[in-house]
Every structure is written in structure tokens, then in C-alpha cells.
Write a structure and sequence with these properties.
Blueprint (H helix, E strand, L loop, with lengths): L1 H8 L6 H13 L3 H14 L4 H13 L3 H14 L4 H13 L3 H14 L4 H14 L2 H14 L4 H13 L3 H17 L4 H17 L3 H14 L4 H14 L2
Helix pairs in contact: 2-3, 2-4, 3-4, 4-5, 5-6, 6-7, 6-8, 7-8, 8-9, 8-10, 9-10, 10-11, 10-12, 12-13, 12-14, 13-14
């Protein structure tokens, strides 16, 4: 029913690019099923539309459907095998599945393709952070900052580390910078929910369930469809059982 209603809403759209634009808007608003629908329509018109695959994969990732997101990522990389950020994003997908060897291999491939892109270093830092490897995460984040000092995702990673290490003043400073970046770039709900969910993931990695739960709940208050936060709460329930 939802797809029929969405189709009716968009019945004037004729081109793949128009579908991609609507998919991007839906993704930023946290409407992931709608984003996936729009991008699927775009791909029906243009099966090689990389932007549609990227948005669809991002929506699947936000829903916590990592295997399906990897499928989209692989399609992107078939079309553009030298796309460094594509490998960097795939690294995060494998990390969320606990496949850290594959994740780090993808991260290394991304860096080999473009070692001056701060995003590839930041993503590899997040892989290490999900694995609980704080020192290597720091090294990657600081490398990313050397290329882009005001990158929100990198500052977020360093803030998460400082928060975990108990340096609240430093963490607050990093998070204040992140929030300034989000305001300056008018980030959508998906980005902000990801910010809260990432904080939850760090506390979950160190079995601090109450703090993790509070951040996952903040993410879901903002974006009820945010699957990563739902999965985080499910992990807490599973780990909390005797």
C-alpha cells in the first residue's frame, strides 16, 4: 500500500534523475522505504545510475540491512572500480557485520586509491572504533583532520573516543564542532540520527548499556525508521539477558 501511495504521489516523474532527486530528499528526511522506492524506479529507467545505487545502499544501511547495502555497494564498484569512497563505505558495512578483516581490507583499498581523501581515513577510523581499537582509530581520525580540519564525521569520531576515555571537556568541544558543522551544512535527519547512533555504538562496544540505550533512543525519536538504532537496542536486550 505504501508503494502505491508513493507511486501516486510521484506520478509526474519521468526521468531517472528526477527519481534520484526525490530519493535523496526522502533519504535526508529519514524516509528510507520511500528513498528505496524512488531509487528503484530510477534504476528501472537507468540500471547504471550510480547515484541511485548509492542512495539506495545508504538507505539500506540506515535500516540496518547491511547485506543488502553491500549488494548495492558492489554494484557501484562494478560500475566504478576506482571509486575510493565506495570501498571506504563498504568497509563500514563489513564492520557492522563484525567482519573486521574484510572491513580493513576495503579500508586499505580505499586509501590506496586516494590517500588524500579525508573520508577514507575517517571511515577506516570508524572501523577501528567499532572494533574497540581506540589507538588505531585515533591515528586514522587525526590523519583525516590533516586533510580537512572541520570534517564533522572525523570530529565526531574523536569526540566519541574522548567521551569514552572520560575526557568530557574535550568530548564536548568536539561535539560542539560537529553540531556547528551540521548547522552550517544543513544536514538532514539521517545524518543527525547517525550521530546519536554512533555514540550508542561506542558505549555498546564497551558494555555500557544504559548510556548506549539513551543515544539509540535519541536517534529513534528523530528518525523512527533508523534501523541501526533499532539493532543497537536489540543488541542491548540480547546482552542484558542472563
Amino acid at each position: 500500500m505504501r508503494c502505491k501511495e508513493t507511486a501516486k504521489k510521484y506520478n509526474e516523474i519521468k526521468t531517472a534523475q528526477e527519481w534520484v532527486e526525490q530519493g535523496a530528499l526522502a533519504y535526508d528526511a529519514g524516509n528510507y522505504d520511500e528513498a528505496i522506492f524512488c531509487c528503484t524506479e530510477a534504476l528501472t529507467l537507468d540500471p547504471k545510475c550510480i547515484e541511485a545505487l548509492k542512495i539506495k545502499g545508504g538507505a539500506k544501511y540506515a535500516q540496518g540491512k547491511f547485506d543488502e547495502a553491500i549488494t548495492c555497494s558492489e554494484e557501484v564498484l562494478k560500475l566504478n572500480p576506482t571509486f575510493a569512497l565506495g570501498f571506504a563505505n563498504q568497509a563500514l558495512l563489513f564492520a557492522h557485520l563484525g567482519q573486521y578483516a574484510k572491513a580493513l581490507a576495503c579500508g586499505d583499498k580505499a586509501i590506496a586509491l586516494d590517500d588524500k581523501d579525508p573520508r577514507v581515513w575517517s571511515n577506516k577510523g570508524n572501523v577501528y572504533l567499532l572494533r574497540g581499537d581506540i589507538q588505531n582509530a585515533k591515528d586514522c581520525f587525526f590523519k583525516a583532520l590533516s586533510y580537512e580540519p572541520s570534517r564533522a564525521g572525523t570530529l565526531q569520531g574523536l569526540g566519541l573516543i574522548a567521551e569514552k576515555e572520560g575526557d568530557i571537556a574535550k568530548a564536548k568541544n568536539y561535539f560542539d564542532q560537529v553540531e556547528a558543522c551540521m548547522k552550517n551544512h544543513a544536514e538532514g535527519k539521517t545524518y543527525t540520527s547517525g550521530f546519536y547512533s554512533a555514540r550508542g555504538e561506542v558505549y555498546l562496544a564497551f558494555n555500557e548499556f544504559d548510556k548506549a540505550k539513551s543515544f539509540f533512543e535519541k536517534a529513534l525519536e528523530l528518525t523512527p525508521e533508523y534501523g541501526l538504532a533499532k539493532q543497537g537496542l536489540n543488541k542491548i536486550r540480547a546482552k542484558s539477558q542472563p
